[in-house]
Amino acid sequence: MGTLGFWRLAQADPGWIAAVDPEGTPHRAGDLLARANRLVHGLRDLGLRPGDGVCGLVPNGADGLVLYLAALQAGWYYTPVNWHLTGPEIAYIVADSEAKAFFVHPRFAAEGARAAEAIEPHRRFLIGGAPGVEGFRQADELTDGQPDTPPSGRTAGATMHYTSGTTGKPKGVRRPLSGADPDDAAELMTFLLALFGMTPGRPNAHLVTSPAYHTAVTQFGGTALHMGHTLVYMDHWDAEEMLRLCERHRVTSSHMVPTHFKRLLALPEEVRSRHDLSSLRWMIHAAAPCPVPVKRAMLEWWGDCVYEYYAATEGGGTIATPEDWKSHPGTVGRPWPISELLVVDDDGEPVPPGTPGTIYMKMTGVAFEYKGDPAKTAASRLKDHFTVGDIGYLDEDGFLYLCDRKADLIISGGANIYPAEIENEIMIHPKVADVAVFGIPDEEWGEQIKAVVEPAPGVAPGPALAAEILASLEGRLSRMKWPKSVDFVAQMPREPNGKLLKRKLRAPYWEGRDRAI
């Protein structure tokens, strides 16, 4: 141990450009280190002790990074809050995480102020140097006059992310603190990126394409930083802007979702070929199944730099290198060296290769609990493995394939139908920008298959398009899996990390029913 970790690297080379804000402002490592150190001194004066929590309602960029770097060297839990939430939802997280300090960026001041009653007035701070907001102190009040020197008694903190909460309230995924030196703990974290073959040092740049409140975005960005890579932040994802940033900053890695791929491939050929992407080495994707033709097209365009994995906030996962995927198209990979997989039936018994079942995982030496919810923690467990409710199967070689989430399974006429399989086939139609498939009530069959489509730009929705989409499934998907009907939406309800909010689409069809899957 001893060569990686942001704080160590920043002391050795304070002039290194560690981050570039969305508007292009570069931030030197030494300046970020000084800001993080002053913040630790200031929050300690406020009474924060190891094990306490800090919440940040901040956009992508240096302000959130400083909160992360302060918490992770002072032994605190840092919770980046989803800025798409409403005041009461934010208040719930601030209260549930037992935060001792709440930082709000002026951009989110309206909902942040609505959430403020969850924490005492002297613990609310406005970060990002803008006009005051009633009931908040300026973060400068905490840090003015504080020394830039490293705080004494440094100890590793952790992020505590809140899961999406598809049922009930979201839960914080809380891990025990290690008590280790922060740089040593950060160096241990780099094993994850090393699995993809990523190497430390410069010149390397990691493009942050999604909101940093997501676990994987924080994890991959933070770890790239601890390896000495420059973080280049995007504020809103845009396909052509991403290509421009990759060329301008010689981006070597990023963390993406299949929706990004679909939109990149929709760019005109002259736009796609205009940008020099020769620096790309580790373009990593996850979060949703990727249609085989989409992935194949990305590998043809970008070469063998497209890696895939399957994982959960709770820990553990798989990885598929470009070579793995080409020899096993559609796979999400094999388990990490420190991870184990189990695919079981409804009785918790392992199923043979090729048979879909519930996926359970475990990560050696990594424990977690859902904060304040022992029942949910216990319900997700099978001995020392856990599940997030996904369905999949292993092939004879031990490669994992995803079918769907258990909650999204359609049972029609007694047959199990996986919407993701249907979505993957519809998604590759050139007139489709996005698609969601789910079950709706059917008196005879129990459920029938509904597809909701967002047409590609300039394509008119209507019966003709619906017929064309269904006809394209001929010979590729058995008739029992065809949607019974197709509806259209102007824009699909997706979180910025690509996660589809299917329940929003499904709810109107199940209104007034006693059962809504």
Automatic annotation (TrEMBL):
Stretches assigned to coiled coil: none
Xref: PROSITE patterns: AMP_BINDING
Region annotation (Disordered) ranges: 142-176
> Which Gene3D superfamilies does this UniProt record tie to the protein?
3.30.300.30, N-terminal domain of ligase-like
Q: Which GO terms describe its molecular function?
A: acid-thiol ligase activity
Domain AMP-dependent synthetase/ligase residues, every copy: 7-370
InterPro entries with a match to the protein in the record: AMP-bd_C, AMP-bd_C_sf, AMP-binding_CS, AMP-dep_synth/lig_dom, ANL_N_sf, ATP-dep_AMP-bd_enzyme
Instruction: Give the source's domain of life in one word.
Output: Bacteria
List, for all copies, the residue spans of the domain called AMP-binding enzyme C-terminal.
421-499
| Protein name according to UniProt | Long-chain acyl-CoA synthetase
Organism (species): Nonomuraea pusilla
